[in-house]
Design brief:
about 250 residues, single chain, alpha/beta, Rossmann fold, eight-stranded mixed beta sheet
C-alpha cells in the first residue's frame, strides 16, 4: 500500500482485528455481488469503499423509477440503464482503485459457476428463490462462502453459508427446495412492498460479513438472523446442517 492507501483505509488499519494484513487481504480480494437492487446497492458501495480490490456485479434488470425509493446506488439519471452498469459506475466513482466489472445479464448455468469460482466471496442480493437456489448450489460446488440477505415489507433476514466448514448448513438446508412451480408464489417486494431503509440495514450487514470473510477479522455470522422492522428487534436462530440435504449432503 502507498501513503494514499494507508490514509484512505487508516480507520480499518487502526483496528487490531484488521490491521495492515487484513486490509491487504481486502485489496487482494474479489467479491461477486448478484443483484444490484435494494440489497446490492449498499453492498456494492460499502465493499468498494472498504477497498475490496475486485467487484463483479451481476444484474440483467434496468433501473425503474420505483427502484429509487431504496436502491441507493442508482440516480434519476440512471433510469433505463442496466442496474449492474449503474451500480458499477457508482462504485468506481466512490473508489477508482477498485476494479469493477458489470455483468449485465442473468447469471445461470456455466456462466454462474464460472463467476462464483472466480470470486473469494459471493453475496446473494436477489429476490427470487430460483436464483437463490442456483447461487447456493454454485457456491457449494465451488467451495465459496455465500452471504445471503433478504428483505420484504418490514422483515429482513441474513445468513452466511460457508461450505468450507463441514458443520455449516447451506441455503437448501434452511429452505428445502419446493416442488417445481411453487416458487411463482414467493413473496417479492415488487408485489408486496418493502420499507426503504430496511434493505440498507440488511445490505450493510451483508457487506460487514463479506469484509470479515475477506479480511479474516472476527468470526462469520452463525445461524439465521431475522429483523422485525416494526418492533426494531433482532432474533437469531440456530440452523443445523441437514445430513440429507440434496445440495450439500454426502
Amino acid at each position: 500500500m502507498n501513503d494514499e492507501a494507508l490514509l484512505r483505509y487508516s480507520r480499518h488499519i487502526m483496528l487490531d482485528a484488521v490491521d495492515i494484513e487484513g486490509q491487504q487481504r481486502l485489496l487482494d480480494g474479489h467479491a461477486l455481488v448478484v443483484g444490484a437492487g435494494g440489497l446490492g446497492s449498499p453492498v456494492t458501495l460499502y465493499l468498494a469503499a472498504a477497498g475490496v480490490g475486485r467487484l463483479s456485479i451481476a444484474d440483467a434488470d434496468v433501473v425503474e423509477i420505483s427502484n429509487l425509493q431504496r436502491q441507493i446506488a442508482h440516480r434519476q439519471d440512471d433510469l433505463g440503464r442496466n442496474k449492474a452498469e449503474s451500480a458499477a459506475a457508482a462504485a468506481s466513482a466512490l473508489n477508482s482503485d477498485c476494479s469493477v466489472a458489470a455483468l449485465a445479464s442473468h447469471l445461470d448455468g456455466e456462466a454462474l459457476a464460472a463467476a462464483v469460482a472466480a470470486a473469494d466471496v459471493v453475496l446473494d442480493c436477489t429476490d427470487r428463490f430460483a436464483s437463490r437456489y442456483a447461487i447456493n448450489r454454485a457456491c457449494v460446488e465451488a467451495g465459496r462462502p455465500l452471504v445471503s440477505g433478504a428483505a420484504i415489507r418490514f422483515s429482513g433476514q441474513l445468513a452466511v453459508f460457508d461450505p468450507r466448514d463441514r458443520q455449516c448448513p447451506c441455503y437448501a438446508c434452511l429452505y428445502p427446495p419446493s416442488p417445481a412451480g411453487e416458487e411463482d408464489d414467493e413473496l417479492r417486494c415488487a408485489e408486496s412492498g418493502v420499507i426503504g431503509p430496511l434493505v440498507g440495514l440488511v445490505g450493510c450487514f451483508q457487506a460487514l460479513e463479506a469484509v470479515k470473510l475477506l479480511s479474516g477479522a472476527g468470526r462469520s455470522h452463525r445461524g439465521l438472523s431475522v429483523f422485525d422492522g416494526l418492533d426494531g428487534e433482532w432474533r437469531r436462530f440456530n440452523v443445523p446442517r441437514d445430513p440429507d440435504c440434496p445440495v450439500c449432503g454426502p
